[in-house]
Amino acid sequence: MEKQALRSKYKKLRQNLSEDSIEAMSLQIANQALKLPIWEKTYYHIFLPISEKKEVNTEYLMHILQGKDKSIVVSKADFSTGEMQHFLLQENTFLKTSEYGIPEPVSGIEISPDMIEVVFVPLLAYDVKGNRVGYGKGFYDRFLKKCNPKSLFIGLSFFEPEPEIIFNTNDVALNFCVSPQNILNFKNNPLSL
């Protein structure tokens, strides 16, 4: 299916979700993520959800990471360059909502993408091979290409996969995707579930 059609479809599906169902499914996603073989790593990048776009609430995953004493990294997007800066999330990190509705760190300790071992990736849709559709600006594809080749990319979705997404060569595929009911393992990852 074409990306633009998928964006429209999944934006509508998300808009029909109630706040209660978003919270319940976000908690289920965090509980599913506990089954992933990723918890021995140190640096985890997490997206802070845009509430008006009804994204997965990553607060539950953040509690897991904090409970395991992991280093959490969050981003700040620069729409003039299409790039993101990544900062260590600390107790004193001040977050401000950007004009695009994205909660972002104002400043802090910058972390290089090649230090990040696990990235929880936002998406609108994904397919059974791990191809994803985002909002179309390419921020995450550019970021993921700068990560260490051994980094793991984990999509979070309220929905199950599409059979196929027509993707281009700039797209970076996921290693896993976590939904409220399932964990999909793409690329025959050597890590066992």
From TrEMBL:
InterPro entries: FTHF_cligase, FTHF_cligase-like_sf, NagB/RpiA_transferase-like. It comes from the Bacteria. It catalyses: (6S)-5-formyl-5,6,7,8-tetrahydrofolate + ATP = (6R)-5,10-methenyltetrahydrofolate + ADP + phosphate. Gene3D superfamilies: NagB/RpiA/CoA transferase-like (3.40.50.10420). Pfam families: 5-FTHF_cyc-lig (PF01812). Its EC number is 6.3.3.2. Its cofactor is Mg(2+). GO terms for molecular function: 5-formyltetrahydrofolate cyclo-ligase activity. Keywords: ATP-binding, Ligase, Magnesium, Metal-binding, Nucleotide-binding. It is an enzyme of class 6 (ligase). Belongs to the 5-formyltetrahydrofolate cyclo-ligase family. This is 5-formyltetrahydrofolate cyclo-ligase. It comes from Aequorivita iocasae.
